[in-house]
Amino acid sequence: MDFAAQPKPAAALGGVGSADGKIAYPPGVKEITDKITTDEMIKRLKMVVKTFMDMDQDSEDEKQQYLPLALHLASEFFLRNPNKDVRLLVACCLADIFRIYAPEAPYTSHDKLKDIFLFITRQLKGLEDTKSPQFNRYFYLLENLAWVKSYNICFELEDCNEIFIQLFRTLFSVINNSHNKKVQMHMLDLMSSIIMEGDGVTQELLDSILINLIPAHKNLNKQSFDLAKGLLKRTVQTIEACIANFFNQVLVLGRSSVSDLSEHVFDLIQELFAIDPHLLLSVMPQLEFKLKSNDGEERLAVVRLLAKLFGSKDSDLATQNRPLWQCFLGRFNDIHVPVRLESVKFASHCLMNHPDLAKDLTEYLKVRSHDPEEAIRHDVIVTIITAAKRDLALVNDQLLGFVRERTLDKRWRVRKEAMMGLAQLYKKYCLHGEAGKEAAEKVSWIKDKLLHIYYQNSIDDKLLVEKIFAQYLVPHNLETEERMKCLYYLYASLDPNAVKALNEMWKCQNMLRSHVRELLDLHKQPTSETNCSAMFGKLMTIAKNLPDPGKAQDFVKKFNQVLGDDEKLRSQLELLISPTCSCKQADVCVREIARKLANPKQPTNPFLEMVKFLLERIAPVHIDSEAISNSALVKLMNKSIEGTADDEEEGVSPDTAIRSGLELLKVLSFTHPTSFHSAETYESLLQCLRMEDDKVAEAAIQIFRNTGHKIETDLPQIRSTLIPILHQKAKRGTPHQAKQAVHCIHAIFTNKEVQLAQIFEPLSRSLNADVPEQLITPLVSLGHISMLAPDQFASPMKSVVANFIVKDLLMNDRSTGEKNGKLWSPDEEVSPEVLAKVQAIKLLVRWLLGMKNNQSKSANSTLRLLSAMLVSEGDLTEQKRISKSDMSRLRLAAGSAIMKLAQEPCYHEIITPEQFQLCALVINDECYQVRQIFAQKLHKALVKLLLPLEYMAIFALCAKDPVKERRAHARQCLLKNISIRREYIKQNPMATEKLLSLLPEYVVPYMIHLLAHDPDFTRSQDVDQLRDIKECLWFMLEVLMTKNENNSHAFMKKMAENIKLTKDAQSPDESKTNEKLYTVCDVALCVINSKSALCNADSPKDPVLPMKFFTQPEKDFCNDKSYISEETRVLLLTGKPKPTGVLGAVNKPLSATGRKPYVRSTGAEAGSNINVNSELNPSTGNRSREQSSEAAETGVSENEENPVMIISVTPAKNIDPVKNKKLNSDQATQGNISSDRGKKRTVTAAGAENIQQKTDEEVDESGPPAPSKPKRGRRPKSESQGNATKTDDVSKPLGKGRKRAAGSQEGPCGLEAGNAKAPKLQDGAKKAAPAERQIDLQR
Questions:
Q1: H-type helices in 733-856, by residue range?
Q2: d(CA 968, CA 958)
Q3: From start to end residue, where is composition biased (Polar residues) (predicted)?
């Protein structure tokens, strides 16, 4: 049937249709024209709708009958009718008409079809109001259209896209949360059919869908977003190509004009990926292209997008698209900071949602944890900690290691984040045990690491550690019993360094508490100039213990003024720092003081914050009498002793728990002594005294010593039980127990003289040198008794010293030491006789320190004895019966004894320069452990300002130490000492009167004199020796010249110039001695002039030289002579090495100096028989100095009598090395090989440690005999006194591939040939494989 010409509707036709083409209406329906009312029209249309609803596609007669009606309903009259009900009914009719006449529509005009579908689309807007009475009809219209897919007819129209766009926009706009699923389903059916059955999706139509995914639209109408999401999921196969084309146009070709959504491409990609990753199969490679864009902002946008795609929970993009994942990871190293920052932020979500990708991320996070940007390093920590707090299993040990490293970051913000993050992890997994024992074990190192940070110099670090300890490690808000249990087992599980840090923390808090107490005492005194000066000094000291000391000074002064005006505030503060203050009282006091200082008008009050810092540091938040005596700690220790505690469950053995518990109580006995005063506590301590564990008993005695001042009056029963135990410990306990027992008796009993006499008399009568193992404890007790009660025991002690200590013990060698070649042995391997001799030396010192009298001959005799022991290298009798390791012990004891006596002013006066020099040379001892321990003792005494300034000059000799770590440690010691002295001068106005003994620059003359008398300095014009002198000078001057405070450079130069106008007080008439002194001065001047342009200024004042070392300058004496040539000066400053052959170092002649030379090794060679970790963090030393010591790293054993260098890789056979004990795992072995001290030496192969060279075997026929060693500290004999060793054949091979280094003939100092011995190689070494080249470096 042809409907090419659309007939006009009849004006008045009713009843049934006829063959003449007039409109036929359903039965009962009158004609519908514009002549009837609207209500009537609606009534009649409803009947028409009913008729069409009931018709189906098979009713051919009815279809033919109602065709004119169908055409009539599509007329303009109905399509443009103003009444919406009319339009709705007409639309329903038209929808049914399309259903009935499908697949062919009764309308053939394209324009008419377009008008009809646009009309129907407009009617669909009525779906918006679900409460409308007509909603069901609207729903019927939608359902009909969707079911029949009526809109598919439009595909034949040229401008069908306009209809579809209008339809899509209408449906997305009307959908809302009041619609049920059926509405959404019909909408999806309708739209998906258009997409899936059409020839493609135009950009405008795609935009009508995608616009609903943009966040702004999504937030406005979530139902439209859900509709779009459902549509895309349903049509993914069809629409994917269209989406790919859109993104290709925008991302690759840069045609942003193709769509209004171009600026939202990354948001769209994110949403599309979340809907279905398959929608973006072709888009992902385009993102890889964008990641490599030259525009940083564009890369940033892509990184942000991909971070969301890779990090989303259900995403498998990283595994599905590895190239894109690898390209994305590369952005962690982007040059643009925001890109790196965004990458790091992404890692947190990735770790939490995709643990399997942690391995890929670890390496990139490692690099970023060292990023130069502070914000990036900070975010790396946040990333790792956030994931770890979610689930510890999400982060591996390596990632936690990055956080651990950042606790030492140079920036405070990063350090703080790392420390707080670790603290939170510890509290969650260790204290609360949220993830079981395995997780707790994984982070058990955190407590140690956090406490180690207390060693840092920054006050901010220290304060944060204190805060972390109070809030996370041992939360102060726990109940007393729970808090003490937490502390008890924490202390037992800490490593030694963490324990020291915790002890130091309590010590610092206690010290600050005492400063505040002293400040309050000053407030009680009448106002005076002295009082104000003392108060100012105390305020400055308190300010140094607070963050930002500069600002803190002003706040502390303000707080002091408030204290002066407010008596109630003072009383609150006094209660807070009183020994009897409980933790609960402290909390109340802190809140009360803060309330008084608060200002409601000032929300942020820096003054109040600073005061809170001070109060938190001094308040007893953990420990009080209840915590120690009344309940927790003592009861916990009792349970451990009885075996009823939960020690094993807490991961601590009962023995460790008891020992650590006692150590904890010992530390607390210093800071909270009054909290221990109860019978229950002392009964528990008495029980500990009876235990077999020596350490436990020792700690218990010390606690009695610190806290038992009222035992005699308040607890007589405890006293009567304690006295016999103390007597027994003083007579037969361990040396440490004996010391503590004597001090305890002296501290807590009024009749101490009687008690000490009861110990002294039987011990002094029973001394027997033939049983040395029974001597050690008596010697310790006698020494401390004579020191504590000199008036009572000095005289009887004198006969003991003369007749037994010196004559019978020190001057006799009863046993023969083991000749194993080792220079050091562990404590348990030292012979009892040597241990007794060491204690005898200490007894002499304690006896003298008690007397404090330099008028008697005893002090001089003792000093001569100690000097003789150093000169004889520890073998006082020179019978050669004592072993090398025992000699090392005695040298250390003698050097330490002189240093100890020097701390007493009366003995410092009588120590001669020669004795001082002998003491100084101990720091260059051939044995590593002697050098290490001596340096630590020296530093400890200097840093407490106990030793005179001249002893700081000894550190200059450390420049010759062969071990890099020891040089670095010495440099740190110097820095610490110098800063402490300068700070002391600043804080103490009275110190200006003692500048000669305090000002660090005054160490220069002592150093110059010491180096002028260095036994290695034998020829004043020898360039190599002068280079060593220069290194020693610069080792000290480098630290002194870091700042030019008060024109100090000119001051030091003036001192060196003034020394040249004097003579050496030690040998004023010896021209050679004075020449060496002036030469060292010239080297010092050369160094100062080359390193500072400010030294030529005028010195602020004329320096004073120590009369003990330099004579008064003569009036007419002028010394402008230069003692080093210009060529030598250039060599010293440029540091160019002397040209030498490959074997130059190996065949270098041996030194003929006054002590054993040894090898300078690098840090990798710094092995020893004990742990050599310094008490200060070693830093890198002088680069120029270290460069000269970085060669010859073939592994050296330093503590070896006759080392052998194995040049080949194969170790020598048949040599049975003695295993070193307590070998530090991160160090190789060191060497003590004879060569010039302080220069490169040859080294032994690893594995050749502790080889004993037999002295009764013959040497190889072709080699000269090895020279003897000169005695330590003695002046070398002249060449005429001994047969000089020839050096002509030094470089000639000794036998098959074997070389021997001969003695030195440098300078006028020859070797002592009288005692020359020629040790031979061991048989095993002789039988080594021919390919091996061995060099026997004999002394």
A1: 735-748, 752-765, 776-788, 790-800, 832-851
A2: 9
A3: 1168-1182, 1225-1235
Within a 10 A sphere around the Cβ of 1330, how many other Cβ atoms? 8
Closest by Cα among 1062, 1112, 1057, 1065 to 1084: 1057
Q: pLDDT (tens digit, 9 = 90+) per residue, 104-157? A: 777 777 887 888 888 888 888 888 888 888 888 888 888 888 887 878 778 777
* Mean pLDDT (whole number) for 885-891: 91
Handedness of CA 42, 44, 49, 50 (dihedral sign): positive
Continuous H helices in 677-751: 679-689, 694-707, 711-714, 716-732, 735-748
**pLDDT tens, residue by residue, 485-540:** 888 889 989 999 999 999 999 999 889 989 999 898 888 888 888 888 888 888 88
Contact 632, 483 (CB under 8 A): yes
Tell me the one-letter amino acid at 793. Answer: F
- The pLDDT value recorded for residue 991 is 67
Contact assessment for residue 212 and residue 224, using Cβ atoms and an 8 Å cutoff:
yes
Q: Parallel, antiparallel, or unpaired for β 1204-1206 and 1299-1300?
A: unpaired
User: Which tokens go with 944?
Assistant: 């407490």
Q: How confident is the model at residue 1234 (pLDDT cuts 50, 70, 90)?
A: very low
CA nearest 1149: which of 1338, 966, 1297? 1338
Structure tokens at 1154: 């006054």
The Cβ-side half-sphere exposure at 827, using a 13 Å CA radius, reads: 1
> How big is the CA angle at 180 (ends 175 and 181), to the nearest 5 degrees?
95
Tokens of 1315: 């005692």
Average pLDDT over residues 1022-1030: 89
Site of tokens 């020693």: 1032
**Which single residue is written with the structure tokens 């959908």?**
175
More confident residue, 1088 or 1097: 1088
Q: How far apart, in whole angstroms, are the C-alpha atoms of residue 453 and residue 362? A: 25
Nearest Cα neighbor of 935 from 575, 621, 1176, 1128 is 1176
- Cα 1134 to chain centroid distance, Å, stands at 38
How far CA 44 is from CA of 29, 88, 137, 144, 197, in Å, comes to 6, 13, 16, 21, 37
Nearest-angstrom CA–CA distance, 1192 and 1207: 11
How many Cα atoms within 13 Å fall on the side-chain side of residue 560?
26
394 contact partners, CB below 8 Å, separation of at least 6: 351, 352, 355, 358, 387, 388
- CB-based contacts of 306: which residues, under 8 Å, 6+ apart? 287, 291, 324, 328
Q: 1204 has which bridge partners?
A: 1336
- Tokens representing 774 are 């029974």
Distances 464 to 423, 450, 1036 between C-alpha atoms, Å: 11, 10, 34
Mean pLDDT of 973-1002: 82
Based on its alpha-carbon atoms, the radius of gyration of the chain, rounded to whole angstroms, reads 47
Contacts of residue 166, defined as CB under 8 A and 6 or more positions apart, other chains included, come to 118, 121
DSSP annotation of 1336 reads E
Closest CA to 1181 of 954, 955, 978: 955
Token pair 């010390």 in the structure block, residue: 702
Q: Reduce the DSSP state of residue 685 to 3 states and report it.
A: helix
Q: Taking Cα atoms as reference points, which of 1008, 1001, 901 lies closest to residue 956?
A: 1008
Q: pLDDT (tens digit, 9 = 90+) per residue, 1163-1184?
A: 433 333 333 333 334 333 343 3
Q: How far apart (Å, rounded) are the C-alpha atoms in residues 1087 and 1124?
A: 12
Other CB atoms within 10 A of residue 629 CB = 21
Bridge partners for 1064 per DSSP: 1110
SS (H, E, C) 103-155: CCCCCCCHHHHHHHHHHHHHHHHHHHCCCCCCHHHHHHHHHHHHHHCHHHHHH
